[in-house]
Amino acid sequence: MMAGDPVLSLRVSEIKDPTALFERYSTEEIRRVERKVRGEIEQKKEELRQMVGERYRDLIDAADTIGEMRQCSETLVESIQDMQQYCHTLKQGRNCVGGTRQEVPITLLHLL
Description:
single chain
């Protein structure tokens, strides 16, 4: 391949009519064009693989985060329900005439 080779400066996106290639270039030059095009195809395939891999990792990270958020919200809801139950128990203890003092439910210990 010579310096300033018109085939190497040819852009793949500029190739509109394959027939024109055969009219303008020799067989050897067309083979160089083919090698160049195949090389660019392989390069694009690799770029696509990397991009898909990155997006897949992003998707997995997002799914993990959503799972953690779900678990956290479930724990929060359980804690609020425990607090409501405890408040209800306290109200019943006050309303109970001559009743004994109510003990704090064990389930509230995880809130501390």
